[in-house]
Amino acid sequence: MSPIARHLNAGTLWALPDDSAVPRREDGAIDYAAIKALGVEAIQHHFIDPAVLGAGLDMTAMGRITSPEEARPLAETQKAQGFILSTWHVGVGLETDAEMDALAGAVLDASAATGHPIHVETHRATMTQDIRRTLDLVARFPDLTFNADLSHWYTGHEMTYGDFAAKLDVMAPIFARVRYMHGRIGTPCCAQVALSGSDDKREFVDHFRQMWARCVAGFVRASEPGEVLPFAPELLPYEIDFGGAIHKLYYARQFGSDGRIREESDRWTQAMHLFEIARLSVVAGPDAK
Asked: Which of 39, 78, 101, 251 is the most interior residue, by most CB within 10 Å?
């Protein structure tokens, strides 16, 4: 049985066009029951959505802390709200080692005190934006666990510049501590791009197959029987309207002109490709090329 559990980040469902293949109810709302029927077990969001719970899906939380004092209250709140786990952006990326240590310790203390699993996300503009500093942090705090959003490192570090395979070997201590994964594939210059399908043979896609397989292999070696590794596609829109305020995220690339500008792909369909790539990466193993 595959160790991967299908989760879905809510951002993948934001601002989808009317012609998206996403399951919808007759009133046009997202059909979470149909999404559950496709094997998705949980939706990740900033807040509890009754429609998601009503469809029998679990919910996982997102969050951000920039000071140690924020950790315990956020963990208590998210656990009380009913989230089964949390993945957090921690810090802003400008921390000293001592500040990173204080944040890491606060995350671990908050998780232990509340019994709520918290996984630190590998993300730009956070204290884990740099691979080397994250490795050093793991050496100081070996109990840290991660949400691997590896597109940030692949693009931010331009990981193809140099010996890619050697970099994966060095990253082994991080792969061994992955307990959640965000599904997104990027190039060395763009963090989110559309794929031709789950069999896309471009080099950068193969690189993500290798990284994801190593994450799964590290998880399997460290996990208990029956534990699963959530894999949640997080394909964000170019922009989103939150209550009349337009927030530009710039993730999905846009094409077109003359008032017919649209995102380059249906992010729902792309998420299905990512689920399949993750599944096949596990089958192929960590040394797949």
From this structure: 78
